[in-house]
Amino acid sequence: MADGRFNVLGGALLPCSLDPLTGFLRDGCCAEHAEDPGQHTVCTRVTDDFLSFSREQGNDLSTPRPEYGFSGLRPGDHWCVCAARWIEALLAGHAPPIVLAATDEAILDSVSLETLVAYAVDRP
Questions:
Q1: Average pLDDT, stretch 4-31?
Q2: Name one Pfam family in it (predicted).
Q3: What is the structure's pLDDT at 80?
Q4: Average pLDDT, whole number, for the chain?
Q5: What angle do CA 81, 89, 98 make, to 5 degrees?
Q6: Which of these, 86, 6, 102, lies nearest to 46 by C-alpha position?
Q7: Strands (DSSP E) along 11-123, which ranges?
Q8: Using one digit for the tens of pLDDT, what is the confidence trace for 53-66?
Q9: Which of 11, 12, 15, 119 is close enough to 28 for a disulfide, judged by CB 3.0 to 4.6 Å?
Q10: pLDDT interval class at 4 (50, 70, 90)
Q11: Rounded distance, CA 13 to CA 95, Å?
């Protein structure tokens, strides 16, 4: 759990993934941090469609980068995605499903809870 952070449902922010290890701090959580200009706050279950879309936008998440300890993502992996990239994917019709309990409430400044619930794998 991210200390003191809440998810979009108002509960404690739960970890998104420990394998692969995600989050701006690589602590498994999609928590908002002042030092994170990308706002990696949306916990997604990545799809092949989203990975292709992200690669086309210049952010290749599927190619391993061993020099950074990154093994590359595969469809079905959970990953903290930048809020702006998830919104961009949403508008383009490529948004991956999200895990509400592991998505930081900060995204609610940009996306309605109704929209998030429509893409949720853990609907309330």
A1: 93
A2: DUF2237
A3: 96
A4: 93
A5: 50
A6: 86
A7: 40-45, 78-82
A8: 999 999 999 999 88
A9: 15
A10: confident
A11: 21
Any idea which residue has 């952070």 for tokens?
Answer: 5
Phi, psi of 6 (to 5 degrees): -120, 150
Whether residue 1 has pLDDT greater than 70: no
Which pair of structure tokens corresponds to residue 54? 């992200």
- Which residue in the block uniquely carries the two structure tokens 């706002």? 39
Say how far apart CA 70 and CA 122 lie, in whole Å: 27
Asked if residue 117 lies in contact with residue 123, where contact means CB atoms within 8 angstroms, the answer is yes
* Pairwise CA distance, residues 100 & 13, whole Å: 9
Give the tokens for residue 43. Answer: 């916990």
List the beta strands (DSSP E) in the chain: 40-45, 78-82
116 has a pLDDT exceeding 90 = yes
Is the sign of the CA dihedral 57, 103, 39, 113 positive or negative? positive
How much is the pTM?
0.92
